[in-house]
Amino acid sequence: MPSGQSASLLWRGGSLLVVLVALYTYIRIPSTSIPTPNLSDISTATVYTLPPLPYAYDALEPQISNQIMELHHSKHHQTYVTNLNKAIKDGGTNKSLMKFNGGGHINHSLFWKNLAPAGSAETSGVAGSKLKAVIKHKWGSQEAFETAFSAALLGIQGSGWGWLVKKANGELEIVTTKDQDPITGATPIVGVDMWEHAYYLQYLNGKAAYVENIWKIINWKVAEERFLSESQDEFKELKAMF
């Protein structure tokens, strides 16, 4: 029989042997069975681009000038896209930058599509008849709705957006958002940009005139499509990064 000291040494030696065997076995496992995360995937998974306008820069004149549209789209919106991609490339950890620039990209992408040239089929009185019927039921008339929406737009302090949204229960509501905060928990139907860069070069401090004229170029066809759509939020993945 081994002494107590010898037994202790044998136990320790046996334990050490088990550890060495386990370590040797682990090292010999093919590297393909232990995937190594590619950290670069975080920064290169998604690259956002400036969407093209569905009309020419001068198509919304005289309500919105060619100069404003070109600057607003090619400079301001492009800046949001550029800074969003940079924030993502940096790991997406700065949630404030992600939300501001991501929201700027989302809001402008929606804004361009819910505008159309005055006098076009999309902006006519018969366009979006199903949506307009619901608006009439809610506000009493199209004119009363536009008055209420305009009041909300002119009541925005500083920079922001005004929206007609469809809530989860299907009900319509007029809401405003600050800075570039995107709509969450509801479907944006019509959005109006109330940042000064959207109107100042043309209207100066007369934003009431800008709001009055915006109704002449609302694309009710697109608005109705958004209202009737049951598809998921196209920007759901981007919003999840915030």
UniProtKB/TrEMBL annotation:
SUPFAM superfamilies: Fe,Mn superoxide dismutase (SOD), C-terminal domain, Fe,Mn superoxide dismutase (SOD), N-terminal domain
KW Manganese (keyword) present: yes
Reactions mediated catalytically: 2 superoxide + 2 H(+) = H2O2 + O2
Gene Ontology CC, one term: mitochondrial matrix
Keyword line: Manganese, Membrane, Metal-binding, Mitochondrion, Oxidoreductase, Transit peptide, Transmembrane, Transmembrane helix
EC supergroup of this enzyme: oxidoreductase
Keyword Hydrolase: no
EC numbers, comma separated: 1.15.1.1
PROSITE patterns noted in UniProt: SOD_MN (PS00088)
Domain of life: Eukaryota
Location(s), subcellular: Mitochondrion matrix
Pfam families listed in its UniProt record: Sod_Fe_C, Sod_Fe_N
Domain Manganese/iron superoxide dismutase N-terminal: 48-116
Homology family: Belongs to the iron/manganese superoxide dismutase family.
Subunit description: Homotetramer.
Descriptive protein name: Superoxide dismutase
Organism whose genome encodes this protein: Cryomyces minteri
Lineage, opening ranks: Eukaryota, Fungi, Dikarya, Ascomycota, Pezizomycotina
